[in-house]
C-alpha cells in the first residue's frame, strides 16, 4: 500500500486538476488519490493532492486560506471571465487612472458578496453551471459571502486600449479570482478578465514545498499524514486509553482547542483522528487509526 500523505504539486498550465490526480495515481501506485481545491486548466501553482488515508483530509484542507498571483486585463470582457473564453465586450481602458484601479481593488477587499462566474462548477438544479452556460442557457447564480483579506496591486501596464494589472490576492475558500477580475473591470466601467493565475499557497503549503509533475515522476515526495495534519490544525496528544476510545470512533472530553478540526495523536506520535469540539465533547470527523 502506498504511504498515506500529501503530495504538493506545482500544477502546469493546460492541465485540469483531474489530469494531475490521474498522473499522481500512476506515480504513487494507488487509485486512492484526490485533490483539495480545484485549479482551472489555465492556472498554475499549488495543488494539494491526498494519497490513501489522506484523501479524508482534503475536504478540511480545501477550506483553508489561499494566495494567488494574478494578471487582470481591463478593457475586455469574456464569457468565462478569463482568457479561455470568448470576448463578449470591449471598451477602451486608456482613460482609467491608476488611482481608480487601486480604489477598485480596495472596494473588493474584505468580507464581500461575490457572484461566481457563469462558467463554474457550482450546481444549479442538480447540474453544473458550466454545462448549462455552454449549452446557451442563462444561469442565475446567487451571490455568496467570501473574504478577500488582501487585493494588492503590484504593477499596472497600459497597452492599446487595454490595461494589465498584476496583483496578489489572499482569500477564503470559495473565492473566484476570475470574478474579482470581472468585478474590478465592472467597477471601472470598462470590463475585465483574468489572463494569468498562479496559486502560491494553500493553508501552510506553498511553492517552496511544491514539485513539478516531472520532478514527482522521478521521485515522488509524500508529506506523511501526521506531519500534514500537524502543519494545519491544532494538535492534541492523548493517553493510551483515550487513543483506544478515539480509534473506535468514540468521543473524548473537549480540551478547549477551538471550533475547527483538531489533530489527535497517540502516545507513539501516530495520527489517530481529526476531531471537532462541540460543547463538552470532541467528536471524530475522520478516524485514521487502524
Automatic annotation (TrEMBL):
Matching Pfam families: TruB_C, TruB_C_2, TruB_N
EC numbers on record: 5.4.99.25
Enzyme class, spelled out: isomerase
Domain tRNA pseudouridine synthase II TruB subfamily 2 C-terminal: 233-288
Domain of life: Bacteria
Reaction catalysed by this enzyme: uridine(55) in tRNA = pseudouridine(55) in tRNA
Gene3D superfamilies, sorted: Pseudouridine synthase (3.30.2350.10), PUA domain (2.30.130.10)
Organism: Nonomuraea longispora
InterPro entries: PsdUridine_synth_cat_dom_sf, PsdUridine_synth_N, PUA-like_sf, PUA_sf, tRNA_psdUridine_synth_fam2_C, tRNA_psdUridine_synth_TruB, TruB_C
NCBIfam families the record matches: TruB
Active site: 40 (nucleophile)
Record-annotated tRNA pseudouridylate synthase B C-terminal domain positions: 178-221
Signal peptide (residue range): none
Function: Responsible for synthesis of pseudouridine from uracil-55 in the psi GC loop of transfer RNAs.
Molecular functions (GO terms): RNA binding; tRNA pseudouridine(55) synthase activity
Ubl conjugation recorded as keyword: no
Record's keyword annotation contains Oxidoreductase: no
All residue ranges annotated as the Pseudouridine synthase II N-terminal domain in the record: 25-177
Gene field: truB
Name by which UniProt lists this protein: tRNA pseudouridine synthase B
Keywords annotated in UniProt: Isomerase, tRNA processing
GO biological process: mRNA pseudouridine synthesis; tRNA pseudouridine synthesis
Family the UniProt entry places it in: Belongs to the pseudouridine synthase TruB family. Type 1 subfamily.
Amino acid at each position: 500500500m502506498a504511504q498515506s500523505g500529501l503530495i504538493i504539486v506545482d500544477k502546469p498550465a493546460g492541465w485540469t486538476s483531474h489530469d494531475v490526480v490521474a498522473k499522481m495515481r500512476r506515480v504513487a501506485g494507488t487509485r486512492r488519490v484526490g485533490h483539495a481545491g480545484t485549479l482551472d486548466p489555465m492556472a498554475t501553482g499549488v495543488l494539494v493532492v491526498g494519497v490513501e488515508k489522506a484523501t479524508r483530509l482534503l475536504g478540511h484542507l480545501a477550506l483553508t486560506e489561499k494566495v494567488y498571483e494574478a494578471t487582470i486585463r481591463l478593457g475586455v470582457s469574456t464569457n468565462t471571465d478569463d482568457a479561455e473564453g470568448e470576448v463578449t465586450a470591449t471598451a477602451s481602458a486608456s482613460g482609467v487612472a491608476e488611482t481608480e484601479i487601486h480604489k477598485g481593488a480596495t472596494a473588493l477587499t474584505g468580507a464581500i458578496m461575490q457572484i461566481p462566474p457563469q462558467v463554474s462548477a457550482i450546481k444549479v438544479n442538480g447540474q453544473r453551471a458550466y454545462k448549462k452556460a455552454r449549452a446557451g442557457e442563462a444561469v442565475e447564480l446567487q451571490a455568496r459571502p467570501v473574504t478577500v483579506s488582501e487585493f494588492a496591486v503590484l504593477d499596472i501596464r497600459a497597452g492599446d486600449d487595454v490595461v494589465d494589472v498584476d496583483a496578489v490576492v489572499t482569500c477564503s475558500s470559495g473565492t473566484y479570482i476570475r470574478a474579482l477580475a470581472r468585478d474590478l473591470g465592472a467597477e471601472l466601467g470598462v470590463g475585465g478578465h483574468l489572463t494569468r493565475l498562479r496559486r502560491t499557497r494553500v493553508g501552510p503549503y506553498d511553492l517552496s514545498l511544491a514539485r513539478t509533475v516531472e520532478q514527482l515522476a522521478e521521485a515522488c515526495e509524500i508529506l506523511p499524514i501526521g506531519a500534514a495534519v500537524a502543519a494545519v490544525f491544532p494538535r492534541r496528544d492523548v493517553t493510551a486509553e483515550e487513543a483506544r476510545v478515539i480509534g473506535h470512533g468514540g468521543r473524548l472530553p473537549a480540551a478547549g482547542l477551538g471550533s475547527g478540526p483538531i489533530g489527535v495523536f497517540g502516545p507513539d506520535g501516530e495520527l489517530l483522528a481529526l476531531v471537532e469540539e462541540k460543547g463538552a465533547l470532541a467528536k471524530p470527523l475522520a478516524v485514521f487509526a487502524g
